[in-house]
Amino acid sequence: MLIQREELQQPPFPLRRCARGGIGLYPDTWWNLASFSASITFFLLKMAPSTYSSHVVSLCLIVFFLLSAVNSQYEKYSFRSFPRHELMPLESAYKYALDQYTGEKWPETVEYMEVSLRLYRLLRDSEAFCNLNCSSVRLDDEEKFAEFPELRAFGNVIKRAQCLKRCKQGLPAFRQTMPSRDTLDEFERREPYRYLQYAYFKSNNLAKAVSAAHTFLLKHPDDDMMQRNMAYYKSLPGAEDHLKDLETKSYETLFVRAVRAYNGENFRTSVSDMELALRDYFKIYDECLAASEGPRNVNDFKDFYPSIADHYIQVLERKVGCETDLTPVVGGFVVEKFVATMYHYLQFAYYKLNDLKNAVPCAASYMLFDPKDEVMKNNVAYYKYHMKQWGLTEEDFLPRSEAVRYYNQTTMQLQMFEFSKQRLASDDEVCECCVILHLKIEISKTSTSLITINVFTSHESCLQFASRRSICAKPVGKSWD
């Protein structure tokens, strides 16, 4: 019999369920809410005085949460028809929001912080749009450069740059002053939500405050201050219903829906939603790669090829980070090996539908990402044992093409990035790394405040020290953090 992973018998990623007793609530139906409040108030008036006040407080908090239902700041966002009155430099909007925050002007803080988040999304979407549209642009007569590979390579680079220039001239996001790399990094780290959650709270919008705090904690689960804030929010009745990621992607919703259908043994619906989730994920992953090809800050001046390599390494680092950034968190748990997990669900759901022609390629696709998984190895062996009986061919045991492409791309990107960090680090970076790590070694060895630090007279002695002590395998960069 086909083996099913233990996680697949129960929800592998606990999903928060909103269990409400008593009268069913429909927050978006105002007359239902009003009649519900009236009936409960009448009921409470009949209760003993000692219990009345606490129930009224709980009811008020529940009703307050319902009245402040969360509408994401992206609800009316449109890449193709961005409101003209909101177009402004991202840096300016964000700085103005922070100034309003400092001045405790909460409505203005909320307004401009939300605008800045939409401007950031517009910029990323615009970057992705142009880079995707220009990704296949090449020289018209490449054969002419057959004997001159450098001219051919950079001819294609120039053609692509020309395409990008034309594309960006037609998009409103690029008519604004570009933000600094530091500002973009803050948005990538979801820092605006740190301010937004408090501004929402001070604006008496607890529902959005809970969602903003939750959105921030997904990126910073160990942030003490936000954890304390969240503990307070969770102590309020109805708060659990608003633990929503305001930056959630479409494939996350589809994935959760597919898992729920799977656990309810509604395998046809599960397959349909999981296939959509897979397709949406690959689309958004490609957009993330394209959006990674934006501008960079030039901090030093190097020769031609080292300078190009430096820029590409920065781009590559952001591309490598796409896989982690797009990994969903469901019910507080990170969905490890997300793409592989989707194929795992698919292979068993297809099997339960007696669709072996689709089940087997999904199993093979999973094996790309986790070839040592004993459960899936047994499943593949089971499929092969019944190969003739089920009319399967050797081609059916090949992984799906999109899985192969994704696996090869993520693997090669990571290999190239690690190679570049190891082989192209400057001597200064290596030397500083040696000093930092030697400092840490001495701190760990000494029981007094006396710390010895090697002072290197040359880069060569620094490198010899690193090699001799087997430290500094990977440079940490110019930072003492």
Query: Taking strands numbered 1, 2, ... along the chain, how are they ordered across the largest sheet?
Result: 1-2
Structural class: mainly alpha
The span between the termini is 54 Å
So how many helices? 19
- Rounded mean pLDDT is 78
Strand and helix order: HHHHHHHHHHHHHEEHHHHHH
In the predicted model, the low-confidence regions spanning at least 5 consecutive residues are 1-69, 430-463, 468-481
The tally of beta strands, per DSSP, is 2
**Binned strand content:** under 5%
Q: What form results from the Cα inertia axes?
A: globular
Main β-sheet description: 2 strands, antiparallel
Radius of gyration from CA coordinates: 28 Å
Classify the helix fraction into a percent range.
55-70%
How many domains comprise the coordinates?
Answer: 4
Would you give an account of this structure?
- The protein has helices at 6-9, 30-45, 49-67, 90-102, 106-133, 149-169, 181-188, 192-202, 206-219, 224-234, 250-263, 267-291, 304-325, 338-352, 356-369, 374-385, 401-423, 427-445, 459-469; strands spanning 329-330, 333-334.
- It has 481 residues and is mostly helical.
- The longest helix is centred in the N-terminal third of the chain and has 28 residues, at 106-133.
- The relative contact order is 0.07.
- Residues 1-69, 430-463 and 468-481 have low confidence and may be disordered.
